[in-house]
Amino acid sequence: MNSEVSVSSFWTPSGEHKVPGAESPSSQAPEIADSEAMDNPYGADVDPEMAAAMEQRMREAQEQLLSVPASQVVANHMIGLFELAALHLRVDPPNLEEARLPIDAMGLVVDNLGSELPDADTIKMALQQIRLAYVEVQKEFQSDVDDD
Fold first, then answer.
1. Measured between alpha carbons, how far is 134 from 130 in angstroms, rounded to an integer?
2. Residue with the larger pLDDT of the pair 79 and 11
3. How far apart are CA 86 and CA 80, in angstroms?
4. DSSP letters along 7-70, please?
5. Is 2 inside a domain boundary?
6. 124 Cβ neighbours under 8 A, 6+ residues apart
7. Preceding peptide of 25 cis, ω within 30°
8. Would residue 111 count as lying in a domain?
9. Are 127 and 107 contacting, i.e. CB atoms less than 8 angstroms apart?
10. From CA 109, how far away is CA 111, in angstroms rounded?
11. What's residue 56's pLDDT?
């Protein structure tokens, strides 16, 4: 089975960009005739000043992100994964399948990069806690299902 994917363009905040030499399955990607659409990638209904302000805010957010060490950003994402798993464990009934993915993702990062993360011990402890919570919720949920 051939599963090639062809990308003829990609979108960025500054507009649509053609991928050099890429072809769509039928032929070349159609040309955009309306030059205004290229000037305003957010659509005709968006005020150009608003679009420029949005782009400026995006640049500022990127600059702010670049000012923080990548290890800190990754550690922050680990806490986000913890919180996502906890949310899925707290609903009634708990969504064990959805909780497992962020726990596993957190485990992969901690197991492979844990020592490079700030507060590595705290993050490892959080991973242990959410894994234990998963097992406890799973047992409780299973016993409730078995009782019914």
1. 6
2. 79
3. 10
4. --EEEETTEEEEPTT---SSSSPPPP--HHHHH-TT-TTS-HHHHHHHHHHHHHHHHHHHTS-H
5. no
6. 110, 114
7. no
8. yes
9. yes
10. 6
11. 92
Answer yes or no: do 54 and 117 share one domain.
no
Q: Whole-angstrom Cα distance, residue 40 to residue 49? A: 10
Could you give the angle at the alpha carbon of 32 between the alpha carbons of 31 and 34, nearest 5°?
145
Instruction: Dump pLDDT digits (tens) for 10-66.
Output: 555 555 656 555 444 444 444 545 544 455 555 567 788 888 899 999 999 999 989
- Is pLDDT above 90 for 128? yes
Structure tokens at 64: 């702010």
> What's the pLDDT score for residue 45?
73
Residues, the chain: 148
The backbone torsions φ and ψ at residue 14, rounded to the nearest 5 degrees and listed phi first, read: -90, 0
Enclosing domain of residue 100: 70-147
pTM above 0.70, yes or no: no
| 12 beta partners | 15
